[in-house]
């Protein structure tokens, strides 16, 4: 079948994003013999025009649209990004009668609400590589979508519970050409690499478990290294590992670093670390194979707030992690998430002072926590009357601890940040 896949995301937070998930789906569909084209709207100046020409050129029989970010997670002046994505769905609907299939991380958090709010016909909740091909097959044969895991049908609801792919290697990482769809110079970009899916840490506010599950599913280090080598041949030598926690499990992280060392890949890369039980040998191995920066979302330095967020680490673990990184020449990007359960103005001060003591190269402070469905925070917010029992949370809602004055926290953070340009 002729398949057009559109990445509707137009937002670049911190850095340029690339539609890795959509490229994985395109790769899987291509292997089944479908003719697949990707349209990445991220830098498109003329969105209606580019959609119209993509549809005119391919005359697609099915159109997939990925929905990434629902909003920007900022409590003040929130940008509700889904509106622009939904406008893309409507444009496509006007130009083509082909079935529209939604997917992507944002869609997977709100599969029912988004399908109902849009003019799409079908939605795929969770990973698309396997089930999208079956959807294509059924559509080609005019069959129903009955029994397909994670598939939602307009007016028919969820047809069967989603099933996560157990062994990601069954679906190879995409050909780099599928990733570099928008005009760019590969050497100027940080290229996303995903080696694992799922996170078992269950932080109280986080939507990852809902999207990727709570069991870590890994690609073989060999397949990852082969893919990085392909990217290098394409001119890319700066990567970021999108894995939620690069150091978990530690044995896998070490195996990956060893495989990268054996392949003598000369790349620079960033990753995200969970600041718990990180040891010198792993950090040393990471630095040796090009790790130049690590992000650490420790979010708070107050033990009670950490516990409420269901963080398994304590502030001493964060301090140890940061000094390990410093010793090994890896820059730190740290994140604070202020205003959660049990937060007080004193605990905010404590976190800001602690962040200073780490001497990070970069720091980001967020005030107010976006409430996602299916999380412990959503449950608590419901009990406290912060959100209505039937709120589907598609429209952004934020949590600020009862009794905490959000404006006071913002003022404190503004004074703090004004003196710290990093
Ligand atoms: S460690 Fe990160 S990805 Fe995992 S649950 Fe916590 S915030 Fe989410």
Strand order of the largest sheet: 2-1-3-4-5-6-7
Bound molecule kinds, no repeats = iron/sulfur cluster
Shape: globular
Counted by DSSP, the helix tally is 16
- Number of self-contained structural domains: 2
As a percent range, the share of helical residues equals 25-40%
> How big a fraction of the residues is strand?
15-25%
CATH class of the largest domain, named Alpha Beta
Blueprint (SSEs and pairs):
Elements: E1 2-7, H1 20-31, E2 35-40, H2 47-58, E3 62-66, H3 82-95, E4 100-103, H4 105-109, H5 111-117, E5 122-124, H6 129-140, E6 151-153, E7 157-158, H7 176-179, E8 191-193, E9 196-197, H8 208-212, E10 217-218, H9 221-233, E11 238-241, H10 250-262, E12 268-273, H11 280-288, E13 291-299, H12 303-308, H13 315-327, E14 331-338, H14 345-358, E15 362-367, E16 369-370, H15 376-383, E17 398-399, H16 406-418
Parallel strand pairs: 1-2, 1-3, 3-4, 4-5, 8-11, 11-12, 12-13, 13-14, 14-15
Antiparallel strand pairs: 5-6, 6-7, 9-10, 16-17
Helix pairs in contact: 1-6, 2-3, 9-10, 10-11, 14-16
Bound molecules: iron/sulfur cluster (SF4).
Describe the structure.
The chain folds into 2 domains: 157 residues, Rossmann fold; 235 residues, Aldolase class I (TIM Barrel). By secondary structure, the protein is of the alpha/beta class. The strands form 4 sheets. A 7-stranded mixed β-sheet has the order 2-1-3-4-5-6-7, with helices on both faces. The longest helix is centred in the first third of the chain and has 14 residues. 38% of the residues lie in helices and 17% in strands. The model has no long low-confidence stretch (mean pLDDT 95). It starts with a strand and ends with a helix. The protein has 16 helices and 17 strands. The chain binds iron/sulfur cluster. Iron/sulfur cluster (SF4) binds next to loops.
């Amino acid at each position: 079948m002729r398949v057009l896949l559109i990445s509707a995301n137009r937002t670049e937070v911190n850095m340029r994003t690339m539609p890795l998930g959509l490229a994985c789906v395109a790769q899987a569909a291509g292997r089944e013999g479908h003719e697949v084209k990707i349209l990445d709207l991220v830098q498109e100046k003329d969105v209606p025009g580019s959609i119209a020409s993509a549809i005119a050129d391919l005359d697609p029989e099915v159109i997939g649209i990925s929905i990434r970010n629902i909003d920007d997670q900022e409590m003040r002046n929130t940008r509700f990004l889904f509106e622009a994505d939904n406008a893309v769905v409507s444009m496509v609907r006007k130009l083509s009668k082909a079935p529209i299939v939604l997917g992507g991380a944002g869609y997977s958090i709100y599969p029912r609400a988004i399908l109902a709010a849009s003019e799409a016909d079908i939605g795929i909740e969770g990973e698309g590589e396997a089930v999208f091909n079956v959807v294509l097959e059924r559509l080609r044969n005019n069959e129903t979508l009955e029994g397909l895991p994670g598939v939602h049908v307009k007016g028919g609801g969820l047809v069967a519970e989603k099933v996560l792919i157990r062994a990601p290697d069954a679906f190879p990482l995409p050909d780099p050409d599928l990733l570099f769809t928008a005009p760019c110079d590969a050497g100027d970009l940080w290229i996303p690499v995903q080696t694992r899916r799922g996170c078992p840490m269950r932080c109280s506010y986080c939507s990852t478990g809902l999207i990727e599950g709570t069991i870590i599913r890994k690609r073989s280090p060999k397949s990852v290294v082969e893919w990085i080598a392909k990217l290098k041949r394409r001119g890319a030598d700066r990567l970021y590992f999108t894995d939620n926690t690069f150091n978990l499990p530690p044995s896998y992280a070490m195996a990956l670093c060893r495989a990268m060392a054996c392949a003598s890949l000369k790349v620079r890369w960033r990753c995200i670390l969970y600041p718990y039980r990180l040891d010198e040998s792993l950090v040393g191995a990471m630095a040796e194979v090009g790790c130049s920066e690590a992000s650490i979302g420790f979010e708070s330095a107050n033990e009670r707030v950490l516990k409420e967020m269901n963080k398994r680490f304590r502030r001493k673990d964060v301090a140890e992690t940061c000094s390990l990184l410093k010793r090994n020449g890896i820059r730190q990007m740290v994140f604070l998430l202020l205003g959660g359960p049990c937060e007080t103005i004193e605990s905010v001060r404590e976190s800001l002072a602690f962040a200073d003591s780490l001497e990070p190269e970069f720091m980001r402070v967020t005030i107010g926590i976006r409430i996602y469905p299916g999380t412990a925070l959503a449950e608590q917010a419901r009990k406290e009357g912060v959100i209505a029992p039937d709120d589907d949370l598609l429209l952004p809602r934020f949590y600020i601890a009862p009794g905490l004055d959000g404006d006071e926290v913002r003022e404190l953070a503004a004074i703090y940040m004004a003196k710290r340009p990093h």
